[in-house]
Amino acid sequence: MERKNAWTTFTDAQVAELETLCKGYRDFLDNGKTERECTSYAVKEAEAHGYKNLNDLIAQGKKLKAGDKVYAASMNKTMVMFHIGKEGLSHGLNILGAHIDSPRIDVKQNPLYEDSEFVLLDTHYYGGVKKYQWVTLPLAIHGVVAKKDGTVIDVVIGEDENDPVVGISDILIHLSGEQMQKTAAKAIEGENLDVIIGNKPKAGEEKEAVKKAILDILKEKYGFEEEDFLSAELEIVPAGKARDFGLDRSMVIGYGQDDRVCAYTSLVAMLENEEIPERTSCCLLVDKEEIGSVGATSADSKFFENSVAELIALCEDYSDLKLRRALRNSKMLSSDVSAAYDPMFPSVFEKKNTAFFGHGIVFNKFTGSRGKSGSNDSNAEYVSEIRRIMDDAGVNFQTAELGKVDVGGGGTIAYISANYGMQVIDSGVAVLCMHAPWEITSKADVYEAKRCYKAFLKNA
To answer: pLDDT at residue 408 above 80?
Structure first.
């Protein structure tokens, strides 16, 4: 069942539309390197397209009707959008669910120290990373510092062309004999991912002179002191912009494409849906997927369920039974990425069930690892419905598994939503170099993802 390369099916008008979409996508990647920045971006776009804050409507006691657009955000790290449909909410929602967190390096709460006249930040990596990939790269610092008086300072250092960057050192090849004997997992240890941020001593100081100079810079330029690290959330991410990749400009390279490629295309699909839908449309963007979907801003929190409950209360008389019916009768695309076939590493893939660049959106009937452990496994009837929707809309799609059986695997948020009894299938864009500091996607697949999500919201 070979699938066509999507590039061969596009008209000139579609290629132009594709390029416009991917330009916006690169902008999203550049301005959304943390879950907070992604949420802020999505909220601004939602409000610009007429979406109202759910909490404001609750406070005003306003009722909702078909065609109304609302959103809710939680802790500035996750958000949900609803476009109210003609059918009652008990009939269910059509949901696009993606995550906006990505593997990175986090700064610890007591991070700042001086060693041999270097000043460094102590760190703890977040999510599944190959630690050796993060050394000798120009890195940026993104996040917030919350001061005791309640002031929250936004921090972005290393993205402007006039900014300095920071980084993690590695031992020179001439002295790395012992290191080269280690496995890749041990070549760089987690406690050796500390970030160098300074080397110039403060004039007139003898003890920890470099650290004192850095503290002066933090106070003068960024407005916080060493104690404020205790209530800071600072993330170390690759510095620099997303770029076209390949001499033919057919791909995008950038940080955090797992899973922001699906988050962005889901967001655009919602925003482009101007007609009143039959069933209520929903776009859910969540945090913490990369560490098991735990915590208040994850898919496993009650945020989404509570938001739907509030929605029902503003649309009609609320009851717990209506909420249960709304969730059970919903249909969802768990919009998460898949592994792209890499000709440099053919041994880990099974070609008949592998995603290929440029062949369209990828559907994974199940994920998990080995014996489908930790997987949502979509039923045949739902897969059939998805096939029909995609074919009717002319969407290029493919199906895949995440590598050979017994080689590896991974999970998504699909199983969490499936616990409500709703129909869920994983669908997303194939990614090359997944979880590396710089990941690669096909523009054709980005475009087909948006087309897929629009078709699903309208016709599921």
So the answer is: no
Q: What whole-number distance in Å separates Cα of residue 295 and Cα of residue 278?
A: 33
Phi then psi dihedrals of residue 380, to 5 deg: -60, -40
CB 244 within 8 A of CB 70: no
Which of 99, 57, 64, 58 has the alpha carbon at shortest distance from 80? 99
Token couple for 277: 């839908």
> Which of 210, 214, 78 is closest to 141 using CA atoms?
214
Tens of pLDDT, residue by residue over 111-170, are 999 999 999 999 999 999 999 999 999 999 999 999 999 999 999 999 999 999 999 999
Q: Rounded to whole angstroms, how far apart are CA atoms 318 and 335?
A: 29
Domains, the chain, in order of start with CATH, read 6-102+255-459 (3.40.630.10), 105-238 (2.30.250.10)
Do 408 and 16 touch, CB atoms closer than 8 A? no
CA 280, 285, 287 angle in degrees (round to 5)?
Answer: 150
Return the biggest CA–CA distance within the chain: 75
Residue 327 exposed, middle or buried by CB count within 10 Å (0-12, 13-18, 19+): buried
pLDDT for 117 equals 96
Backbone angles phi, psi at 203, to 5 degrees: -60, 135
Taking the chain, what is the end-to-end CA distance rounded to the nearest angstrom? Answer: 24
- pLDDT per residue as tens digits for the range 414-448: 999 999 999 999 999 999 999 999 999 999 999 99
Structure tokens at 302: 């009650």
Residue 449 tokens, joined: 């993802």
Q: Are strands 331-335 and 423-428 parallel, antiparallel or unpaired?
A: parallel
Partnered with residue 402 across adjacent β-strands are: none
Could you give the count of Cα atoms lying within 13 Å of 113 in the half-sphere of its Cβ?
10
Q: Dig out the tokens for 294 from the structure.
A: 């735990």
> Does residue 337 contact residue 261 with C-beta atoms inside 8 Å?
yes
Q: Which of 98, 41, 435 is nearest to 293 (CA)?
A: 98
